[in-house]
Amino acid sequence: MNFLKRFFSKESRQPRVNIKQRFELIGRVGQGSMSKVWRARDLNSGRTVALKVLHKQKTEELEARFVGLNKPREGDIAVQFQHPHIVKTFEHGLTSEGEQFLVMEFIEGYSLSFLVEAQNEDMRTNCLKYMIQLGEAIQYFHNENWIHRDICPRNIMVDNEQQLKLIDFGLVVPNTPPFLLPGNRTGTAAYMAPELIKRQKTSQKIDIFSYAVTCYEMLTRQLPWKAAETMEAVLQHINSPPKPIQELLPGINPQIADAIMKGLELYPQDRWQTIDEMLVPFKEVYQSQKTAVTQQKSETTDSSTSRPAAAVPGKKGSREKSDPNSKRPRSAQKPVQTPEQRLRRRKRKPPVDDSQGTSENQPQPGSSPGKEQHASRKNTPSRPKPGNPDESH
Ligand SMILES: Nc1ncnc2c1ncn2[C@@H]1O[C@H](COP(=O)(O)OP(=O)(O)OP(=O)(O)O)[C@@H](O)[C@H]1O
C-alpha cells in the first residue's frame, strides 16, 4: 500500500536533479535544523544562488505530522511569494537522492539573530524600519492565506542594503480549518503563542504573537519572559504577564511600547486583529522620526554656514536623538566590536521540542508540562523525530 502511494505520489513524477552536476557548490553558509544551505553557482543560469537541501528523514517526519491534510511542501509554498521582504525562491525540486531542494536568491548580509545580539549601529539606526519591513512581510503572508508558525530572528536576514528578508518556510501551513485544529506544537518555544503551547485552536494570531516577541527582542535584546527557552519554562510562565518593555527601555516611545505589549496578550482576542493594525503606530512613529531627522539636518545645514564645522552636531548624534532606541539600556549600547565575540561566547540555549509525533490535527487536551520534551539547539523549532523524546536538531 505504502509502495503504491509512493509510486503515485507527486515526488515520483518529478524529474530528479543531480545537484553536483547542476551547481558549483562554493561554500556552506548555513546549517539549519532541517537542512543544509550552500552558496552555489547555478550552472544553468550562471547566477549565484542559495541552495537549500532539506534533510530527507527529518522532512518526512515533519510531513508525517500532516497526514491526510495534504500540506504543501516548503518549495511549493516558497516559489509563490513575491514580496520585497521575503526571499525569492526561483525553483524547487528533488535531488537524485530524493531530497527536496530550493534554489533562492543569495542574501549577502546577516541573520537578524546576530543583529539582535550585536545591537550595533545598524540596529540602533534601523530597528524600527526592520520591524515595519518584517510586519509587512507577515501581513503579505496572511493576505495570501498562510500562517508562518515560526517567526523569530533566526528565520530572518538583513541584507547589505539594509533590507530585511524572511527566509524560512519550513513550518508554513495554509490558513484553512483543518490546519487550525488543536494539535502538536511546532515552532520555537520562546516565540510560541500561548494557544499553540496549550494545544488549543490556532489562527494567524500566533504569528502576531511571535512578531511581538521578535520586536521586543529587537529593541531590548531580551525576551518578554525570563527563561522562555524550553517548553517547560514556557509552560511555567505562560499565564504570567510579560515584563513591560518600558521597564527595560524607560525612554521608549509609548506608542511603540503599547503596540508590542498588545501583541503579547495571552488571549488571541485581546491582541491586534491584524499585523496591519499593529503597524499603524510603528509607521506613525517612523514617519515622525524621519521628519524630525530631516528638520534637524536642514537646521544643521543652515547653522553650519554661520558656525565653525567643529560645532556642528554629527550625523550620528542627530540620528540617535530621534531614534526610539536611543534610550536603550547600557548593555545595549556597548561597543560595536564586542557582539560577535559575545555571540560566540553566549551559551546556546536549549530549544524546545514537541517530538511526540502527534498528527497536526490530533487534539492533545490532557498534555501536562511534565510530558513535554526538550530539544537541544538554541531557538530551534520544535520538529518531529519519532522515538527520540530528547530530540536534537
Ligand atoms: N537565501 C539565503 N541566502 C543566504 N543565506 C541563507 C539563505 N537561506 C538560508 N541561509 C542561511 O542558512 C541558514 C539556514 O537556513 P534555514 O533557516 O532556511 O534552514 P532550516 O533548516 O529551515 O533552519 P531551521 O529549521 O533551523 O530554522 C540561515 O540561518 C542562513 O544563515
Automatic annotation (TrEMBL):
<feature type="binding site">
    <location>
        <position position="52"/>
    </location>
    <ligand>
        <name>ATP</name>
    </ligand>
</feature>
<keyword id="KW-0067">ATP-binding</keyword>
<dbReference type="InterPro" id="IPR017441">
    <property type="entry name" value="Protein_kinase_ATP_BS"/>
</dbReference>
<feature type="domain" description="Protein kinase">
    <location>
        <begin position="23"/>
        <end position="283"/>
    </location>
</feature>
<dbReference type="InterPro" id="IPR000719">
    <property type="entry name" value="Prot_kinase_dom"/>
</dbReference>
<keyword id="KW-0808">Transferase</keyword>
<dbReference type="InterPro" id="IPR045269">
    <property type="entry name" value="Atg1-like"/>
</dbReference>
<feature type="compositionally biased region" description="Polar residues">
    <location>
        <begin position="355"/>
        <end position="367"/>
    </location>
</feature>
<keyword id="KW-0418">Kinase</keyword>
<dbReference type="InterPro" id="IPR011009">
    <property type="entry name" value="Kinase-like_dom_sf"/>
</dbReference>
<protein>
    <submittedName>
        <fullName>Serine/threonine-protein kinase PknB</fullName>
        <ecNumber>2.7.11.1</ecNumber>
    </submittedName>
</protein>
<dbReference type="Pfam" id="PF00069">
    <property type="entry name" value="Pkinase"/>
</dbReference>
<feature type="compositionally biased region" description="Basic and acidic residues">
    <location>
        <begin position="317"/>
        <end position="326"/>
    </location>
</feature>
<feature type="region of interest" description="Disordered">
    <location>
        <begin position="292"/>
        <end position="393"/>
    </location>
</feature>
<keyword id="KW-0547">Nucleotide-binding</keyword>
<feature type="compositionally biased region" description="Polar residues">
    <location>
        <begin position="292"/>
        <end position="307"/>
    </location>
</feature>
<dbReference type="GO" id="GO:0004674">
    <property type="term" value="F:protein serine/threonine kinase activity"/>
</dbReference>
